[in-house]
């Protein structure tokens, strides 16, 4: 039974579906990494994703143009991000609570808009897998990695871009500085609120794209609450990866691969009760989290509003 | 520092839990539940021959009335009755997206106290709430499903769908249409009418082609569209060319079936509109069949105590063929033979 898992077709299936499943997590968790690195905990990711997913779907559905849909998701995410930034930076609200508020707002609003503007589940023809000359033809590797749609490629590109920005640029240095020691950054002439605004708005945009990756690239439908807790897992992955983009990607891939593994375990009739199978990714992630959280330290100013002279 | 870390770990565990519980938890405050009074008081003072009071129905359901599945099946049934009796004589009020049982319980109690003739708790999860509420309103009739249990109360009706029947018929067709001999099933949680449907489907396949393989995936959620989609992808990867599934998250799976030219069989409501080129047939629930019987009893002064089921025999279940799909004659004949067999009792699905 178990040996069936190790055939070529199954392994290719597990890996390529793991790569796809990880896509929305990557967008959302990269955005959240930036936000948290700058000191702002955004718990509203799920709500931002839902609104992004709806905006992308609705605009693509009505105009027939997927890129306009993407733009709509970006704008929606940006607005949600700016609102979150305003509340947590200017108004200095308790971030955990306001984030939950944003989640509930996104959940309710996307459902309301869905019912008023669409009324029923519709489909769009979303982004198709992109053939990359040479790479897509490589046996096995090509099937797994290079037979995906553009938003899947974009997610992995984003991880490396995020790593580069955080570690190799002045902007990254500023973001980390305001997240670790806003007073020190401020005394060196860095505008704490500007940097945080940027990071939180960027997080919003990424959440919007994460939603779009579901509604117009991977699933091509919109349904109420279609993210189904995905945004919260993305936040967990940021902790899991210790606020480092590459490690966050590792966590996203681990979670997604185990999830696609459990789907195969059931399909191959390996005698594990389905209830245990669906638990696997969560249990494993919690265990890995408990182990990994011991060795990393969150940004010192995380969740702490900054006030000059305090 | 240590304290912050502890708090963070706690928070994360909670977040994971919220996520793991899928839709249930996530719906916390969707008070979307817009209470819409259908066609409320169309004032027509003209010759009212019978000044009879309109029959008032309220229904509380867990997902949207447009979910192409469980909730929609009930909403469509009520609309069908309303069309028959006229909007003046039959008023419907509904609360949808009531994932949170506490909210649903509050809504059920509200409706009961407002004097509705029939309050429908459409979801087996509402049972324990109903058990508390029903005794306080003995003049109000309640219906809940899908279940077989009326709690022995005189004002509670119970209803159930024998979804294994349509499942069996779909299975017969699936076995004949599959060229690869591999058929994939995307299920939510192994319980209720979802389990009945999937089990009946597997029996139908086995009875038609003993060599065909039915692979079943329970994804552990009614709302995780992404995982349902990936489950369908897994079935395709395992060689399936015919798929089926139940509950509202299957919209993700239908898209995958369409992309891969695999056939789809639906249940609960018609899913043809999502992918008319690949949907072969749907088992459609017609709750109006049993609702009418309940209403008749209520109007006669009996408020409950009965258990109803919708079946192929009483017309509460219907296998609806998609007219846009060119179903081979022999397959259709086999499906019809299966329906006849279930109706006349010569086919037993679960011995």
SSE diagram, text form:
The complex is a heterodimer of chains A (310) and B (351).
Chain A: H1 8-37, H2 45-63, H3 66-90, H4 95-118, H5 141-145, H6 150-168, H7 170-180, H8 182-187, H9 192-218, H10 230-240, H11 245-267, H12 274-293
Chain B: H1 2-20, H2 23-26, E1 36-37, E2 55-60, H3 70-85, E3 90-95, H4 101-113, E4 118-122, H5 127-133, E5 141-145, E6 156-161, H6 164-177, E7 182-187, H7 192-208, E8 213-218, H8 225-237, E9 242-245, H9 251-259, E10 263-268, E11 279-285, H10 288-299, E12 307-310, E13 317-321, H11 329-344
Parallel strand pairs in B: 2-3, 2-4, 4-5, 5-6, 6-12, 7-8, 7-9, 9-10, 10-11
Antiparallel strand pairs in B: 1-3, 11-13
Helix pairs in contact in B: 3-10, 6-7, 6-11, 8-9
Describe it.
The complex is a heterodimer of chains A (310) and B (351). Chain A contains twelve helices and no strands. Chain A is mainly α and 310 residues long. Chain A has one domain. The N and C termini of chain A lie far apart (63 Å). In chain A, 71% of the residues lie in helices and 0% in strands. In chain B, 40% of the residues lie in helices and 19% in strands. In chain B, the strands form two sheets. Chain B has a seven-stranded mixed beta sheet, sandwiched between helices. In chain B, strands 8-7-9-10-11-13 form a six-stranded mixed beta sheet, with helices on both faces. Chain B has eleven helices and 13 strands. The longest helix of chain B has 19 residues, at 2-20. Chain B is of the alpha/beta class. Chain B has helices spanning 2-20, 23-26, 70-85, 101-113, 127-133, 164-177, 192-208, 225-237, 251-259, 288-299, 329-344, and strands at residues 36-37, 55-60, 90-95, 118-122, 141-145, 156-161, 182-187, 213-218, 242-245, 263-268, 279-285, 307-310, 317-321. Chain B is globular, with a radius of gyration of 22 Å. Mean pLDDT of chain B is 86; it is low at 16-48. The interface between A and B is large, with 60 and 61 residues.
């Amino acid at each position: 039974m178990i040996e069936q898992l190790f055939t070529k077709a199954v392994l290719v299936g597990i890996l390529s579906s793991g790569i796809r499943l990880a896509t929305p997590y990557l967008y959302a968790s990269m955005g959240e990494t930036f936000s948290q690195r700058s000191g702002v905990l955004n718990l509203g990711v799920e709500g931002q994703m839902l609104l992004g997913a709806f905006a992308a779907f609705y605009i693509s559905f009505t105009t027939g143009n997927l890129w306009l849909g993407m733009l709509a998701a970006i704008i929606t995410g940006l607005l949600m991000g700016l609102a979150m930034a305003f509340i947590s930076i200017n108004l200095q609200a308790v971030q955990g609570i306001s984030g939950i508020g944003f989640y509930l707002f996104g959940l309710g609003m996307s459902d309301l808009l869905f019912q008023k503007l669409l009324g029923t589940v519709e489909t769009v023809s979303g982004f198709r897998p992109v053939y990359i000359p040479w790479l897509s033809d490589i046996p096995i590797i090509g099937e797994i990695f290079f037979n995906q749609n553009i938003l899947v490629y974009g997610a992995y590109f984003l991880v490396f871009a995020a790593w580069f920005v955080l570690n190799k640029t002045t902007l990254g240095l500023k973001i980390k500085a305001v997240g670790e020691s806003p007073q020190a950054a401020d005394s060196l002439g860095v505008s704490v609120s500007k940097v945080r605004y940027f990071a939180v708005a960027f997080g919003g945009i990424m959440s919007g794209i994460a939603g779009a990756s579901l509604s117009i690239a991977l699933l091509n439908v919109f349904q109420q609450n279609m993210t189904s807790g995905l945004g919260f897992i993305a936040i967990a992955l940021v902790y899991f990866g210790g606020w480092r983009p590459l490690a966050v990607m590792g966590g996203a891939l681990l979670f997604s691969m185990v999830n696609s593994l459990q789907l195969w375990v059931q399909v191959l009739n390996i005698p594990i009760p389905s209830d245990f199978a669906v638990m696997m990714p969560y249990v494993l992630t919690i265990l890995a989290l408990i182990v990994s959280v011991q060795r990393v330290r969150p940004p010192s100013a995380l969740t702490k509003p900054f006030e000059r002279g305090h | 520092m240590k304290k912050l870390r502890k708090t963070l770990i706690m928070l994360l565990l909670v977040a994971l839990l919220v996520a793991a519980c899928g839709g249930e938890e996530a719906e916390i405050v969707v008070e979307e539940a817009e209470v819409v009074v259908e066609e409320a008081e169309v004032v027509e003072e003209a010759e009212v021959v019978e000044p009879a009071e309109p029959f008032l129905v309220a229904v509380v359901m867990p997902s949207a009335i447009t979910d192409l599945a469980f909730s929609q099946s009930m909403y469509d049934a009520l609309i069908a009755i309303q069309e028959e009796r006229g909007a003046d004589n039959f008023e419907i009020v509904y609360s949808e997206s009531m994932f949170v049982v506490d909210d649903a319980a509050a809504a059920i109690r509200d409706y009961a106290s407002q004097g509705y003739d029939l309050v429908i708790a459409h979801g087996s999860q509402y049972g324990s709430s109903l058990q508390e509420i029903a005794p306080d309103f003995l003049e109000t009739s309640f219906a809940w499903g899908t279940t077989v249990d009326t709690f022995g109360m005189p004002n509670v009706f119970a209803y159930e769908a024998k979804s294994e029947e349509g499942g069996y018929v779909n299975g017969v067709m699936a076995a004949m249409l599959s060229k690869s001999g591999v058929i994939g099933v995307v299920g939510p949680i192994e319980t209720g009418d979802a389990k009945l449907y999937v089990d009946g489907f597997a029996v139908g396949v086995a009875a038609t082609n003993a060599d065909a393989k039915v692979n079943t995936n329970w994804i552990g959620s009614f709302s995780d569209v992404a995982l349902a989609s990936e489950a369908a992808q897994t079935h395709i990867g395992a060689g399936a060319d015919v798929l089926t599934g139940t509950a509202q998250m299957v919209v993700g799976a239908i898209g995958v079936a369409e992309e891969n030219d695999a056939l789809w069989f639906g249940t609960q409501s018609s899913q043809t509109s999502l992918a008319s080129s690949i949907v072969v047939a749907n088992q459609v629930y017609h709750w109006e069949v049993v609702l009418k019987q309940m209403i008749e009893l209520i109007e006669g002064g009996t408020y409950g105590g009965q258990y109803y089921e919708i079946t192929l025999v009483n017309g509460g279940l219907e296998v609806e063929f998609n007219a846009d799909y060119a179903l081979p004659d022999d397959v259709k004949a086999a499906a019809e033979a299966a329906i006849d067999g279930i109706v006349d009792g010569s086919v037993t699905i679960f011995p």
